[in-house]
Specification:
By secondary structure, the protein is α/β, with parallel strands linked by helices. The protein folds into two domains: 7-106, Ribonuclease Z/Hydroxyacylglutathione hydrolase-like (Metallo-beta-lactamase, Chain A, 4-Layer Sandwich), CATH 3.60.15.10; 114-201, Metallo-beta-lactamase, Chain A, CATH 3.60.15. 31% of the residues lie in helices and 22% in strands. It is built from seven helices and twelve strands. The strands form three sheets. A six-stranded mixed sheet has the order 5-6-7-8-11-12, with no helix packed on it. The model has no long low-confidence stretch (mean pLDDT 91). The structure holds zinc ion.
Length: 202
């Protein structure tokens, strides 16, 4: 479990970005070896693409939901258009030795010290959002499209209705900032309310 002041990395980008990510981490005055945990919000290739190599570089424990781990390990194939993601991963592995992460722990409760793991399925079966103080790390639950919070395009989602339920569930928590995987972090004022209105209107 996460201990006070341990450094955490959330998601790892698409394959081939290890050097960029390590450079970015060092620019924040964080030594890669001080990253103790890598938390994955879901199994998509653009979130897990550097997980294995970053785990090797940092020695961190890698975490994901039990529902998404089989997709990350390659025991289950990604559905629909996401098959292309798996192909991209295989090609990246061939050319860049990306490798699939092997040692992955499953989030076994919903608390890691003062970080809350909120199951928010829909985009993938085991998608999670992470709440730290007043910041919601939303993964692909929502995206910031020029200041407007939106759901991912339908073609990218396992279950649209389930995402809406997940957004409603998250609405019960208190947070000021949303950090989605796509788009800039957003200090929310009316944007979340607008998102709920859009969901209700659909
Ligand atoms: Zn995604």
């Amino acid at each position: 479990m996460v201990k006070d002041k341990e450094t955490i990395l959330i998601d790892t980008g698409r394959p081939g970005k290890v050097k960029n990510i390590l450079k970015e981490i060092e620019s924040l005055n964080i030594k890669p070896k001080n990253i103790k945990h890598i938390l994955l919000t879901h199994h998509d290739v653009d979130r897990i693409g550097n997980a294995a190599l970053l785990q090797k570089e940092t020695g961190a424990t890698l975490w994901a939901s039990k529902e998404d781990i089989p997709y990350i390990r390659g025991d289950k194939s990604r559905p629909g258009v996401k098959k292309l993601g798996s192909l991209y991963l295989s090609v990246s592995d061939f050319f860049m030795r990306v490798k699939k992460p092997e040692k992955i722990k499953s989030y076994n409760d919903h608390k890691m010290d003062d970080l809350e793991i909120i199951p928010t399925p829909g985009h993938t079966p085991g998608h999670v959002s992470l709440l730290y103080k007043d910041i919601l790390f939303a993964g692909d639950l929502v995206r910031n499209s020029n200041g407007v919070l939106k759901m991912a395009p339908a073609i990218m989602n396992a279950d649209e209705e389930l995402i809406k339920e997940s957004i409603l569930k998250v609405s019960e928590y208190s947070f000021k900032w949303v950090c989605p995987c796509n788009g800039e972090p957003l200090e929310i004022k009316d944007e979340w309310k607008q998102l709920l209105n859009n969901i209700a209107g659909n």
